[in-house]
Amino acid sequence: MVIDKTTKWDIFVSHSSRDKPLVERIVKDFQNAGLLVWHDSKAIEPGDRLREMINLGIRNSSVVVIIISVNSMRSRWVLNELDAAMLREITEARKVVLPVAIGRVQFEDLPEDLKGKHIVDLRYDFNRKYLENGPRLVRAAQEAAGRSTIPLRDEIEVGPAAIAHFLNYEFTWRNEDARIPLKDLNTIAEAFWTSISEPSDDDLEEASEQQETFDWFVKAYGITAVHKIFLYFIDNFDFSLTRRFTDEDVAKLFNFISVFINCMKIQDVVQDLGGFNLIYMGVTPDGSFGYRLSPGVTVQVNEDPEFKGTVDDD
User: Fold this and answer.
1) pTM of the model
2) In what order do the strands lie in the sheet with 61-68?
3) In 10 A of CB 212, how many CB atoms?
4) What distance in Å separates the CA atoms of residue 238 and residue 241, rounded to the nearest whole number?
5) Range 211-216, long-range pairs (CB < 8 A, 24+ positions)
6) How far apart are CA 230 and CA 256, in angstroms?
7) pLDDT of res. 47
8) Are 30 and 153 contacting, i.e. CB atoms less than 8 angstroms apart?
9) pLDDT of 70 above 90
């Protein structure tokens, strides 16, 4: 990522390098939730002036997450970063500092600036505590950074609501080493779409049905929706166009998009039959992506190939 004085981040993570394994897990979940994170191992390049880059990161980040531990409270760097962040909080009269406690640090040993704040407590049993409180931490970071609705966090109906979400999504380039012009990304999206929707020689009947489904989607929602869905998925699922990517990465991307398009088609058919929401989708902070059926709804399909199906709402 090319960084200059105008680069903006959502989150600056202040921590001791001795706590790196736990910090990396938190940072990963922030990134999976669509947050742009200033993290020293990624943001500082060889030859950069360390103090200047750190000050830039704090100044240009919406929120400063302080990872509180025995190690960090002994770190001159972390304490200086805390002072700078608290000064911003006072000057801007808003919440800037979000403290997170790990390890065996004692609250009575904390600087006075932190004692009056609500602290996300992950001490003593990090894995268990983080499993319980990690999603809340990510939500708090999103809200403090003003990014609580991007990307999709809560469940949403597969259908027009999901399309509206994708159309409103702004591509972040966070997985890319350089900014590709959007017109070029859209061209790539269309080429990718064509490659996964065209029939292959493996199973012409099945592939033809797949193409019909993809053609239906374009007719129903337009080519802009194709662009946005492609950008959303490569932005949120560790896929990079400017770094090395493998056949497995491409297959994973294909699967995400293909499943979504097919769920859209199923939802369209069910809406015509029963007029209610059947499928919901959601993305969680750990980057997982899944679907569920509405409670109390079953879909019955007759063996007769001409029979379109019935829906029972128990």
Assistant:
1) 0.49
2) 37-38, 9-14, 61-68, 97-101, 120-121
3) 13
4) 10
5) 213/261, 213/262, 213/265, 214/261, 216/265, 216/268
6) 10
7) 45
8) no
9) yes
